[in-house]
Specification:
The structure is a single chain. Helices cover 55% and strands 1% of the residues. It contains 13 helices and two strands, in the order H-H-H-E-H-H-H-H-H-H-H-H-H-H-E. A two-stranded antiparallel ribbon has the order 1-2. Helix 3 (40-66) packs across helix 4 (74-85), helix 3 runs parallel beside helix 10 and helix 4 (74-85) packs parallel to helix 8 (148-155). The longest helix is centred in the N-terminal third of the chain and has 27 residues, at 40-66.
Amino acid sequence: MTDAVSSPNDSRPVAIYVVATVMLLFHVGAFAVIFVDASTPAVLVAVLMYLIRGFGVTAGFHRLLAHRSFQTSRPVLFLFALAGSLAMQGGPLWWVAHHRAHHRDTDTMEDIHSPTTHGFWQSHMGWMMSAAAFQENGANSRDLHRFPELKFLQRNYVALVLVQGAMLFAIGVGLNALFPEWGTSGLQMLVWGQFVSTVALWHATFMVNSVCHIWGGRPNNTGDDSTNNPFVALFALGEGWHNNHHAFPFSARHGLRWWQLDLTWMLLKILEKLRLVSNLKIPKASATAAPG
């Protein structure tokens, strides 16, 4: 995939080590909260970063780009994809290519993040540190190449992440200078806003691949091991209703029952009221008659 996932074969082992090192350092960095302490602004920023970037992944990368579950303008599409890119789960073209491959090959040997065929660890996060993660040629996401803004985000993915960290550090320094009584610092804001928030969002998202193909209900006969898991749905902003999603991948709503909390859907409905998104696709009521 030009500008997305293709790279010389001899660079893939290096990329694997880079990904593994970054993920290790971020997990270690999250434990730095022991040393930087906490402040109300830092914790609030961590929560906001979790929600904004999580929404970028669930609504932007997943429901908009991968499945075209709704429509929006080009500026809003860019903001969705930017938020998703800052979540540090890969650039938009790479992410969509792998997700569409998951739907094509669900729970077969070709599905590189299936716990059924490759085990829990591999499905949860190990697949991103494998050669297969860098071998997706992206043929199934070439429809997105008509958006130069997405190619820009893919090419500049690393730079965007670095700028994000620098901005968080600067915010912490600025708040400390303006409001020293708040007890913030650049390092504290970086740890909470970048490391803690990112690691928490990583595992919430990763559980959709791992947990939601092992534990939970299967009200829809999808021919795979996808499940509905309310615990994952809570932390992954509605993505845990994964069996619903595999039954109706076109749907912008994953929590199809009134009691199935789907925060992404709720936020999309608000954006629809504001006329920022439109044509939110959902299945017909008769198609969702199975108990939840």
